[in-house]
Amino acid sequence: MITSTSNTQIKELAKLQKKSRLRDERGIFLVEGPRMVEEIPKERIERLYISESFERKNPAYIKDLGVSAEVLSDPVFSYVSDTKNPQGILAIVKRLEYTMEDILGKSASKCEEKSGEKEKNPQNHQIRVPHVIVLDNLQDPGNLGTIFRTAEAAGATGILLSSDSVDVYNPKVIRSTMGAVFRMPFFYVKDLPAAVKSLSSQGIRTYAAHLNGKNVYDEEDYTEGCAFLIGNEGNGLRDEVSECADCLIRIPMCGKAESLNAAVAAAVLMFEAGRQRRK
């Protein structure tokens, strides 16, 4: 058991927790909490730490998980944790790498619905029709995490982000994805307008969620390849991005509401695409 914050491993772990640049250089990110740790593909766990009290309360957890762990005293674990109320387990995880092929669903299988039954039709496990969410300068970690979780549930094939959007590996983003970050492909691009044009050139119709949209979102056809463009929380889509879209769409709102939260707007659009495809 490690009982001192002066330990070399602990010093390194504390640095990783505080410095995103160091995490970037190492190609890793940090995950806390038993629920999230259970979602991690085992081959991606680089190192695992648990607190003394967690081991005492869950004597069989690590054995069942099938991964060795370093035990830390409770004060030391609190020292390296990113949360106010540590849950007693923390993992260093190798980052995931995706390509545009992954985003478009060309290398992914059909997502399983939680029906409790095994898939009976092997033909369903084919290349999926692209269903992409495109994020322009999204800044809120909670919004991004929620979009990841929603995208998985709605059957999206991937998430495309501008390079100035919040870091997917931000600890707050990771926590709010509730594990979806390990299953939802994502890809950052420096030139988002060019990426949107590229989607259109591949036969994927691009829809910008915009206050000036002439068409109501649920009057469009999303059964073929589609991509939804969502902008910054305060400023919406940049003009140079929305101008690249094939169609501007709007979500009708009652009352005095001027706009929807970015994650909520994304959810409305993604689930509408999912609804149409189920029909």
TrEMBL record:
GO terms for molecular function: RNA binding; RNA methyltransferase activity. Keywords: Methyltransferase, Transferase. Residues 30-99 form the RNA 2-O ribose methyltransferase substrate binding domain. GO terms for biological process: methylation; RNA processing. Transmembrane segments: none annotated. InterPro entries: Alpha/beta_knot_MTases (IPR029028), MRM3-like_sub_bind (IPR053888), Ribosomal_eL30-like_sf (IPR029064), rRNA_Methyltransferase (IPR051259), SpoU_MeTrfase (IPR001537), SpoU_subst-bd (IPR013123), tRNA_m1G_MTases_N (IPR029026). GO terms for cellular component: cytoplasm. Belongs to the class IV-like SAM-binding methyltransferase superfamily. RNA methyltransferase TrmH family. PANTHER family: RRNA METHYLTRANSFERASE 3, RRNA METHYLTRANSFERASE 3, MITOCHONDRIAL. This is RNA methyltransferase. It comes from [Ruminococcus] lactaris.
